[in-house]
Write a structure and sequence with these properties.
single chain; 342 residues; ABC transporter involved in vitamin B12 uptake, BtuC; two-stranded antiparallel ribbon; 14 helices; 2% strand; globular
Length: 342
């Protein structure tokens, strides 16, 4: 048999070593192994960590950031970054709650208006990046401030529903994704289910459709993508628009979880946590490389660290310290990998 024939062997004839190398080279494997090690560590430190109710709590705590991180992943895959995710989400949830309570809109209409408000910010971001050719960092820094201001102007710094004591008076439709169902002795939130569904849809769109291939191509080498006939401006505009849609859904999840429309929600930590989840999940800040499954794992890593450190009695300020160190390490690995590719 010639050397050419040997290299053309079907995948079924590959050795176990070949399959092992391919598995270890997969982008999400590193974050997954890190997640397993982290969970093993905290399970040794606390008997409560691996209990069903606690793991369900971890997922509830990351479901909002997880959905935000899907949109952030799309943007970062195109070599951009979105600093406005948390403030846009905050504006969306204020629109939903204020319109449902003060303006007398039906709950579903209020939800739709809140989501559309977030989509409008996504379209604005995309139009400025593609039309005016401004850097994504500058554009989203500007819309961060715009969304922040509008949130406080529209809400007049009032939390909705105002003066709530006891059970929330928000319409049940706004709170749907905060409801739970039981598996065994563990309550699972519908919002967590929605988060996994959205990650599944994002994975399918990025890996099984022409649009997904265009997103990767536009992030890896936009000029080469343009020369092959891909309308990169259209791809970027669609990415920011879809990201805005996801921020609107995250706003609905936030209302469902907190049972409030809080003008101060999502102003700082959600912006940073969404980027942290993407970076820890192995998506390159240089664009064109990464997976949305890695982002899911990265979001869970953030949730596991904060939950585990709380269980073993570590103060909150040190949780941010650990998260910051993890981000620096992940970006350093990405930088070294990028240099090797060059």
């Amino acid at each position: 048999m010639s050397a050419t024939q040997t290299s053309a062997q079907p995948p079924s004839t590959r050795s176990p070593l070949d399959w092992t190398r391919r598995f270890l080279a997969a982008p999400a494997v590193g974050p997954f192994l890190a997640l397993l090690l982290t969970m093993a560590f905290f399970s040794l430190k606390s008997d409560r960590f691996l209990q069903g109710p606690n793991l369900s709590l971890v997922l509830q705590q990351v479901m909002v950031v997880g959905v935000l991180a899907i949109g952030q992943t799309l943007v970062i895959l195109t070599a951009g970054i979105d600093l406005s995710v948390g403030t846009v989400m905050a504006f969306g949830q204020i629109v939903m709650t204020k319109f449902a309570i003060d303006q007398g809109f039906s709950p579903l209409t209020a939800i739709a208006l809140g989501i559309l408000a977030c989509v409008a910010f996504g379209v604005l971001n995309g139009a400025l990046v593609t039309g005016v050719r401004l850097p994504a960092f500058i554009v989203t820094l500007g819309t961060l401030n715009i969304a922040f201001a509008l949130t406080h102007i529209v809400s007049k710094d009032i939390t909705y529903p105002p003066g709530t004591s006891g059970a929330s008076t928000l319409p049940s439709q706004l709170l749907f994704f905060g409801r739970t169902f039981t598996i065994g002795n563990t309550e699972i939130t519908y919002g967590v289910v929605l988060m996994f569904v959205l990650f599944g849809l994002a994975w399918f769109a990025l890996t099984q459709t022409a649009w997904g291939r265009h997103v990767y191509a536009a992030g890896d080498d936009p000029e080469a993508a343009r020369l092959t006939g891909i309308k990169t401006w259209r791809v970027l505009l669609s990415v920011y628009t879809v990201a805005g849609l996801l921020y609107g859904i995250a706003a609905w999840l936030l209302v469902s979880r907190t049972e409030l429309g809080d003008p101060n929600a999502g102003q700082t930590t959600e912006n940073l946590d969404s980027i942290t989840a993407v970076v820890l999940g192995g998506t390159s800040l240089f664009g064109g490389r990464g997976t949305v499954i890695g982002t899911l794992i990265g979001a869970i890593i953030v949730g596991v660290f904060r939950n585990g450190l709380t269980l073993i009695g570590v103060e909150v300020i040190y949780q941010y310290l650990v998260t910051g160190i993890l981000v620096i390490l992940a970006v350093s690995v990405d930088q070294l990998t990028h240099r090797r590719r060059l």
